[in-house]
Design brief:
Distance between the termini of chain A: 33 Å
Number of helices of chain B: 4
CATH class of the largest domain in chain B: Alpha Beta
CATH topology of the largest domain in chain B: VC0802-like
Strand content of chain B: 35-45%
Low-confidence stretches of chain A: 416-420, 430-435
Number of strands of chain A: 21
Low-confidence stretches of chain B: none
Strand order of the largest sheet of chain A: 4-3-5-6-7-8-9-14-13
CATH architecture of the largest domain in chain B: 2-Layer Sandwich
Largest sheet of chain A: 9 strands, mixed
Number of domains of chain B: 2
Largest sheet of chain B: 7 strands, antiparallel
CATH superfamily of the largest domain in chain A: ANL, N-terminal domain
Oligomer: heterodimer
Mean pLDDT of chain B: 93
Strand content of chain A: 15-25%
Number of strands of chain B: 7
Helix content of chain B: 25-40%
Distance between the termini of chain B: 22 Å
Mean pLDDT of chain A: 91
């Protein structure tokens, strides 16, 4: 364990939570007009928080609230105290922006260090980090976490699979950090390249997150790379990766002395008891630049508060079972249908009649958008239609940050094959990850 | 004046899918619509079927009711001798007048004549008709195709 608090008695954890919760509520109430107004509407003052359970009395915060205050409207510090800004694609054009003070970076490094220490990752380890470096929190989150525990980090970022394999082998990487689908893709390429996955590589554990992974996929990764599978849960609005991580007993522990989890009924917002499935909600209690109160993650899961065989007393969350909205995760990138709609309505001559099809190409996800060609769109020329297709593809890349294949289809196709309202066809699950 | 020679052509968007072309031809057959001329342009994923029929209004409403995306275009048709240089005589006139041809297709008419169909940009349609007519080429009236 990186920090003894991970296995401290529940009373001690809850005492810390209460103190920090009261601080953060004071902080947002006095520094962010948005929170003050919402608290006042709900008839709550900061001194109403007398127990962690009182959290339930506070209003929720949503992704829409972050968008409405784009870019820095919910920050509690001036920019001169901010040392890092990350951003993820938003649901309709505007990205979500998150900021970190020096202290927030310490918090992030701390929770990432705990994450990496789930398998004792330390100075002897070579950490091959294949998460994307950039605005996405995955790459830099793991990077500094690994530096914090003293490992040698190889910041390879995504892509260039063959070169990554060469470096992993030659540098003797012991830890791999990647999205599950990319890790499996690496294994397939490695086989094709003639590597012996067990004897050519020294990997002992992998840290996987940023996208859902079936148990089949996890098992496939364990076997093909001969590694311990560590699941990492996180979202940039809360901090990035490191909100929760799985121990060697397979339980996903929430770093709840920094982020208090709740599970609520997605319809009514009512807090649900442990063991019941609902929407995961987080309150950050140590972050300064962008503290967030009762953030609706839209992730569906179950919480358990019971001691784990690993010695940790931190709350256990189950792997995310689904989404309360229609967000898709494609190769680790969040995609909202509303983004696709946004492109279709802004590119002249197209109507928002579309279907999103997600499928597997090999082990990686591929995204197709089928767009109806109606009379307004239909230019009588192959060239004009190909141009429209190319333009839509390039606009989608701009908006979604991933490659999308646009397919022009007849109007009847969409209705006939899936009923009008259905906008998303996800074929990935049906395939399973039989390996 | 050039309206006189505007032949209505139907362009139909088709996905490259088995049986799709047959659905169009069968719809025409059921409606007793006669196809007088046709051309099919294709890309990897879709195609455009262009038809000149004996009753464009009827054909269009049938196809639309069957869910096809149909666009009506004005094209013009000329009759040339079915001998070497016949096609060239028209293309040369269009070229000399800086008129771009979007596409063209042809069929053998009666006897020793061939009928050529041309699609030019809409804004150049009148200019094209005038140039062709002035060049002594015989323009076909739409009634040649329609009932």
């Amino acid at each position: 364990m990186w920090n003894r608090i991970e296995g401290a008695p529940r009373e001690e954890i809850e005492k810390i939570q209460l103190k920090r919760l009261r601080d953060v509520v004071q902080r947002v109430y006095h520094l962010v007009p948005f929170y003050r107004e919402k608290f006042q509407e709900a008839g709550i003052t900061p001194d109403a928080i007398n127990s962690v359970d009182d959290l339930a009395r506070l209003p929720f915060t949503t992704k829409q609230d972050l968008r409405d205050h784009y870019p820095f409207g919910l920050f509690t510090v001036p920019l001169d105290q901010v040392v890092r800004i990350h951003s993820s694609s938003g649901t309709t054009g505007k990205p979500t922006v998150v900021g970190y003070t020096r202290n927030d970076m310490d918090v992030w490094n701390e929770v990432m260090a705990r994450t990496l220490q789930m398998v004792g990752c330390g100075p002897e380890d070579v950490v091959h980090n294949a998460y994307g470096y950039g605005l996405f929190t995955g790459g830099l989150g793991f990077h500094y976490g690994a530096e914090t525990v003293g490992s040698a980090v190889v910041p390879s970022s995504g892509g260039f699979t063959k070169r990554q394999l060469l470096l992993m082998k030659d540098f003797g990487a012991t830890i791999l950090c990647a999205t599950p689908s990319f890790a499996l893709h690496m294994a397939e390429v490695a086989k094709d390249e003639g590597y012996d996955l067990h004897s050519d590589f020294r990997l002992r554990a992998g840290f996987f997150g940023a996208e859902p992974a079936s148990e089949g996929l996890r098992q496939a990764l364990r076997e093909v790379w001969d590694i311990i599978y560590v699941e990492v849960y996180g979202l940039s609005e809360i901090i990035g990766p490191g909100v929760a991580a799985s121990c060697p007993h397979g339980n996903l522990h929430v770093m709840e002395d920094h982020f208090i989890p709740e599970v609520v009924d997605p319809e009514t917002g009512e807090v649900l008891p442990d063991g019941e499935e609902g929407e995961l909600v987080f309150t950050t209690i140590t972050k300064q630049a962008l503290p967030i109160i009762r953030y609706r993650t839209k992730d569906i899961t179950v919480l358990h508060r019971e001691p784990c065989a690993c010695g940790r007393t931190l709350t256990i969350m189950e792997s995310v079972r689904g989404r309360a909205d229609d967000m898709l995760i494609v190769n680790g990138v969040n995609v909202f249908p509303s983004q696709v709609e946004h492109v279709l309505t802004t590119v002249e001559g197209t109507t928002p009649n579309y279907v999103i099809v997600v499928d597997k190409k090999g082990v990686l996800d591929k995204l197709e958008v089928w767009v109806e060609v109606d009379e307004a769109t239909f230019a009588d020329g192959i060239g004009a239609l190909e141009e429209l297709k190319a333009r839509l593809q390039s606009e989608m890349l701009n908006e979604l940050y991933i490659n999308v294949k646009v397919k022009l289809v007849e109007p009847k196709t969409l209705e006939r094959s899936m009923g009008k309202a259905k906008r998303i066809i996800d074929r990935r699950e049906a395939e399973g990850m039989k390996s | 004046m050039s309206k006189k020679y505007a032949v209505k052509q139907l362009s139909i968007f088709l996905e490259n899918r088995k049986g799709r072309l047959l659905e169009v031809t069968e719809a025409m057959e059921r409606a007793r619509v006669n196809i007088r001329a046709l051309a099919l342009a294709e890309s990897a994923e879709f195609g455009i079927l262009r038809l000149v029929v004996n009753n464009p209004e009827k054909a269009r409403s049938i196809l639309a009711s069957e869910g096809f995306t149909v666009k009506e275009q004005n094209v013009f048709a000329v009759e040339v001798p079915d001998t070497p240089g016949g096609f060239s005589s028209v293309v040369r006139i269009l070229h000399d007048n800086d008129i771009n041809v979007d596409y063209t297709y042809a069929f053998v008419g009666g006897g020793d004549k061939a009928v050529l169909i041309f699609k030019v940009p809409d804004r150049l349609f009148d200019v094209a008709i005038q140039a062709v007519e002035k060049g002594g080429i015989k323009l076909m009236e739409p009634m040649f195709f329609y009932d």
